[in-house]
Q: What sequence folds into this?
């Protein structure tokens, strides 16, 4: 099971506390998003825009850096990681990104700083044991945008993985991205013996061609896995039925593992039949959601509540014994 930015249902995302809790809850992998600082340091934030997940707006010394940019075709106003050195980013404190849905997490606002990818890798290694290794599933965010501003993410990630001794297929770090170009770049830089790569699949029409039999075969030439959304996986399962032929079965036939994103326990993110009550922030049947996906034999669930995914896996295992 995969802790999506840690365990953000219980602690603000991308914080040390969130990642540590995910491991405590049984996550096999912890998933940070990776962006870049001005001096090329790989830092972990959901986006390169900082205002939703840090207290940057409360720092008067940075008021003049608020600006508007176009990131991957979207106009965005705020403060951006690439305008800050790593030393400056370390002065910021993390806050809950969705306080309206996770008000209890606001109690942790200001307690934790902005981590680097290296620090997340170190955390995973420190918490790993021979019986239960912990891996890092690093998602590379906006590689095309960073390339446009003169920051080649593939080259910087390859260099950092080499420095960390995580550039091999030993499983310490797995890399995923929506952009196939950066995954191909990493495969070229680190070779066939490099880390495992996972192709994230958009729900947008651009992702449709990736999940055809020919698209999956193409992905298998540079990656070892795919990561479609829960909606795409469930829709394919409903279309093809339990007898096979659905997306997960087709991916396995192409020798690709399947991670599924993103499971969240709040009603706001669940289909109607799994909601409990009417409050958007109320908790629904997250275990039932996970069980439906595990029944289609996905290899991993990317979840904001790793404990719920682990509970589903345990329940399914018990049924099969």
A:
């Amino acid at each position: 099971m995969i802790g999506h930015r840690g365990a953000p249902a219980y602690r603000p995302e991308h914080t040390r506390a969130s990642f540590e809790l995910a491991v405590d809850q049984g996550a096999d992998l912890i998933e940070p998003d990776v962006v870049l600082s001005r001096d090329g340091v790989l830092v972990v934030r959901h986006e390169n825009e900082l205002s939703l997940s840090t207290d940057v707006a409360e720092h008067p010394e940075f008021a003049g850096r608020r600006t508007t940019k176009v990131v991957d075709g979207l106009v965005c106003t705020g403060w951006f990681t690439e305008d800050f050195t790593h030393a400056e980013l370390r002065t910021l404190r993390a806050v809950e990104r969705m306080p309206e849905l996770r008000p209890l997490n606001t109690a942790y606002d200001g307690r934790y700083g902005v981590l680097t990818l290296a620090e997340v890798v170190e955390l995973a290694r420190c918490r790993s044991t021979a019986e239960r290794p912990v891996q890092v599933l690093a998602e590379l965010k906006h590689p095309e945008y960073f390339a446009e501003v003169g920051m080649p993410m593939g080259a910087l990630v390859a260099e950092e993985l080499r420095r960390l001794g995580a550039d091999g297929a030993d499983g310490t770090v797995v890399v995923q991205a929506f952009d196939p170009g950066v995954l191909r770049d990493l495969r070229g830089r680190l070779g066939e013996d490099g880390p495992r790569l996972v192709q994230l699949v958009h729900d947008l029409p651009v992702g449709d061609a990736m999940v055809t039999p020919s698209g999956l075969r193409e992905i298998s030439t540079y990656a070892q896995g795919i990561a479609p959304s829960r909606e795409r996986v469930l829709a394919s399962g409903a279309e093809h039925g339990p007898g096979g032929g659905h997306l997960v079965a087709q991916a396995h036939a192409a020798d690709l593992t399947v991670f599924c994103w993103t499971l969240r326990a709040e009603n706001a993110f669940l289909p109607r039949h799994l909601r409990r009550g009417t409050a958007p922030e109320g908790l629904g049947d997250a275990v039932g959601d996970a069980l439906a996906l595990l029944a289609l034999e996905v290899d991993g669930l990317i979840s904001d509540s790793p404990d719920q995914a682990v509970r589903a896996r345990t329940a399914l295992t018990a049924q099969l014994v």
Notes: The chain is about 30% helix and 15% strand. The first strand starts at residue 2 and ends at 4.
